[in-house]
Amino acid sequence: MKHLFRACCSVLLLAVPAAAFQPSAQGGFVPVTPLTAAEQLPAAPLLITAYAFVWVAVLVYVWSIWRRLGKVEHEMHALQQRARRDSR
Amino acid sequence: MKKLFTPLLLIVAAMFAYAPVMIANAPYESSMGLVQKIFYFHVPSWFVMFTAVFICGIQSANFLFRRKPSADRIAVAAGELVVLFGLLGLVTGPLWGRKAWGVWWQWDARLTMALLLELIFIGYLLVRKYGGPGSEKLAAAMAIFGMANVPFVYVSVNIWRTVHPKTTVVPSLVPGMFGAFWFSVLAFMLLFVLLLTLRVRLEHQRAALDELYLAEEDL
Amino acid sequence: MFARVALLVLKKDFAIEVKSREILYTTLFFAVSCVLVFAFALVRDGRAIDDAAAGILWIAIAFAGTLALGRTFERERYGETLRALLLAPAPRPAIYVGKLLGIVVLLLLAETILVPLVALLFQAAFFARPWLLAGLLVAGTIGFASVGTLFAAMLVRSRTRDVMLPILLYPITVPVIIAGVRGTSALLQPVPDEPAAAMWMALLVCFDVVFVTLALWTFEPLMTE
C-alpha cells in the first residue's frame, strides 16, 4: 500500500513538469518565428502540480500522524490489558 | 479542544475545497499570468512556517527554562510542521520560478534563507530522533537558535539585491486578489492549528504510554 | 569572579594545549588539506576561478573549526573533566566564556597561518585592507565558535556527537559563512569595496551579539542534568 502510494506520488510529480516541456518541442525542425515566452511554457501544469503537491503532502502527513497514533494507542491498549490480567 | 476538533476539521476541509474556486476567480496578474496563482498557497505556506518557527522556538524556551513537559510536546509538533510547510513552500516556489524566472532554482536571498530554515528544523527533528537521551534539551536549543536566525533572514533580504517579489506586494493587492489571498491564509492557518492539535495529541499519548510502562516496571 | 573563572578555564585549556599542541597542529593540518582539496576542484588552467579564495578560506575555517570543537570537548569527556568543571562552584556562563575564548584563540592562531597560505596559493590580495579582513575574521570566528562551543558542550553527553555537531552547527552558522565570504570577496575586488565589507562586518557583529547572548542565557539550563 505504502509503496503503491509512493509510486503514484512520484509518477504524478514527475509527469506533470515533464508534460509542461512537451509543447515547446512542437516546433521540431521547422524554423518558425520564435514562440513567445507564454507559449513556450504553459503555466497550468505547473499550477496544478503545485496545488496537487500541497494536497498530497498534507494528506500524507495526516496519514502518518494517524498511523503513529494508531500504533501508540494499540500498544497502550495491549499494556492495559496485560496490567488487568496481572492484577487478577 | 476535542469538541472543537471535528468542526475545525469540517471548516478546514470546506475551505480547502472552496479555495480553488476563489483562486480561479481572482484576476490574473499582468506580467506573470496564470502561474502567479501559485502565490495563493505559496505565500500562506511561508506565513504558517514562520508562525510554526516562532511557536517552536518560544515553546522550546518555555521547556528549557520552566521545565514544562507540555511545552516540549507543542515544540516538537510545531517543529515537524515547520518542515512540512517549509516543504510546501520550497516545492511550490520553484514551480512558480520555472515560469517567472525561467529556472527552477535561483540563488536568491530569500530562497536560500528559506532553505536554511528548513535545514535547521530538519536538523532539529534529526536530533530529536537520533540524539539519544537528553536530546530534547539539545533540540530545544536548536529551535531557539533557529528562531533567532529569522531576523537575519529578514535583514538579509533587505540588504541583498533580490529577484524575489517583495513582501510589500501583499498590502498592495487588488481587491479580487486580496480576498482570495487572505482566504487562503486563513485556510492554511486553520489547517496548521488542526495539524498541531493532532500532532500534540500524538505526543501526549506517547507520554501517557511511557508513564504506563514506568508504572508497570514499578509493580 | 566571572572574568576570573573564564580566564582560569582559558588558562587550563592553554596549559594542556601548550604541552601537547595536538589540537592546533591537527586543526591546522586539516585546514591546509581542505585548501588543497578545494584547489583541485576550483583551479582551471593554473588559475582559480574568481572569488574562489574567499570561499576556500572560510570553508577551511568552518571545517577546521568543527574539528577543533570536537577534539576540545572530546578531551574533556575523556578525562570526565567537564563534569568536574560544572560541579565547581563557579558561574556556568563563565565556564562557557572560558571555553569560547579558548576555541576562538585557537582558530585565530590557525587563521594567521591559513590566510597567508591562501593568499600565496591563489594570488589573493588579502592584505590590501588588513584591518577590515582581520575584523571580518575575528567577528566571523566568534560567531562560528559561539554556537559551536554551546552545541559541542551539550553533545558531550550524546552518543552520536560526531555526526550531530556538523548537522546542528552548519545550518545555524550559514549566515556567518555567507557574510564572511561576501565580505572577504568584496575586499578582493581590484578596487576593494570597503562599504560592502563594512556592511557584512556589521551583520557579523550583530550575529555575534545575538548568539553569544543566547548561548550565555541557555548554557545554564542546558548543562543542568
The pair of chains with the biggest contact is: A-B, 30 and 33 residues
Mean pLDDT of chain A: 69
Largest sheet of chain A: none
Q: How is the main sheet of chain C built?
A: 2 strands, antiparallel
Strand arrangement within the widest β-sheet of chain C reads 1-2
- Stretches of chain A where pLDDT falls below 50 for ≥5 residues? 14-28
Helix and strand topology:
The complex is a heterotrimer of chains A (88), B (219) and C (225).
Chain A (H helix, E strand, L loop, with lengths): L1 H20 L15 H4 L2 H45 L1
Helix pairs in contact in A: 1-3
Chain B lengths: L1 H24 L13 H28 L2 H32 L8 H22 L4 H25 L15 H44 L1
Helix pairs in contact in B: 1-6, 2-3, 2-5, 2-6, 3-4, 3-6, 4-5
Chain C lengths: L1 H19 L1 H21 E2 L2 E2 L3 H27 L2 H7 L4 H31 L7 H26 L5 H27 L6 H30 L2
Antiparallel strand pairs in C: 1-2
Helix pairs in contact in C: 1-5, 2-3, 2-5, 3-5, 3-6, 3-7, 5-6, 5-8, 6-7, 6-8, 7-8
Please explain how this structure is put together.
The complex is a heterotrimer of chains A (88), B (219) and C (225). Chain A has a domain of 46 residues. Helix content of chain A is 78%, strand content 0%. Chain A is built from 3 helices and no strands. Chain A is rod-shaped, with a radius of gyration of 24 Å. About 17% of the residues of chain A have low confidence. Chain B is an all-alpha fold and 219 residues long. Chain B has 6 helices and no strands. The radius of gyration of chain B is 20 Å and the shape is globular. Chain B starts with a helix and ends with a helix. Chain C has one domain. In chain C, β1 and β2 form a beta hairpin. The chains are: A mainly alpha (88), B mainly alpha (219), C mainly alpha (225). At the A-B interface, α3 of A face α2, α3 and α6 of B.
Describe this structure in a few short sentences.
The complex is a heterotrimer of chains A (88), B (219) and C (225). With 219 residues, chain B is mainly α.
What labels describe this entry?
heterotrimer; A: 88 residues; mainly alpha; 3 helices; 78% helix; rod-shaped; C: 225 residues; 2 strands
